[in-house]
Design goal:
The protein is mainly alpha-helical. The protein contains seven helices and no strands.
């Protein structure tokens, strides 16, 4: 499980850098438009691509850090074992099937894009749209890997017999 956690951390840090570049490209695009009355389609598209990559590729990292939206009204009041049970069941019954469905549903668009070598429909746009479509497959793969990590983490809490200080406090 340590490997999966470290892998999630690595992807998260890479996406953080991508976010920085997205902001820089956005500022350059705005300044070019404002100062020189010009705009480059490839620059606008690259910001869109980076935004898509940020959203799709950071999902597993966000889950790893327990930063996804959840209804904490009940969850926050539960002890560690009950929280682990909710996490385990939610991951097994919701996250894994949803991730598999996204991969399955995205596969035809991904394959077609690579088969035809899809490019931007805009003149002067980015040439390799099929790379962007690859994120539709990479995202559920990263989520499945993180789901395995979450199942291991929750399972360790659920099936451990030792009482930890955290679980005593939450009882």
């Amino acid at each position: 499980m340590k490997f999966l956690h470290n892998f999630s951390q690595l992807t998260g840090r890479a996406i953080a850098w991508l976010t920085l570049f997205m902001v820089i490209f956005s500022v350059v695009n705005v300044l070019a438009s404002w100062l020189f009355n010009t705009s480059w389609i490839w620059l606008r598209e690259s910001v869109t691509w980076m935004h898509g990559a940020n959203f799709l590729l950071a999902a597993a990292y966000t889950l790893n850090h327990q930063e996804h939206v959840r209804v904490d009204i009940l969850y926050a009041k539960m002890n560690a074992k009950k929280q682990a049970l909710v996490d385990f069941v939610g991951t097994f019954l919701l996250l894994l099937p949803t991730s598999l469905f996204i991969a399955w549903a995205s596969w035809p668009a991904f394959m077609l894009s690579w088969r035809v070598g899809e490019v931007s429909s805009e003149a002067g746009g980015l040439p390799a749209v099929y790379i962007l479509k690859s994120f539709l497959i990479i995202m559920p793969i990263l989520l499945i890997l993180e789901a395995i990590n979450q199942l291991g983490r929750s399972g360790a809490i659920l099936f451990s017999t030792a009482i930890t200080p955290t679980s005593q406090e939450n009882s």
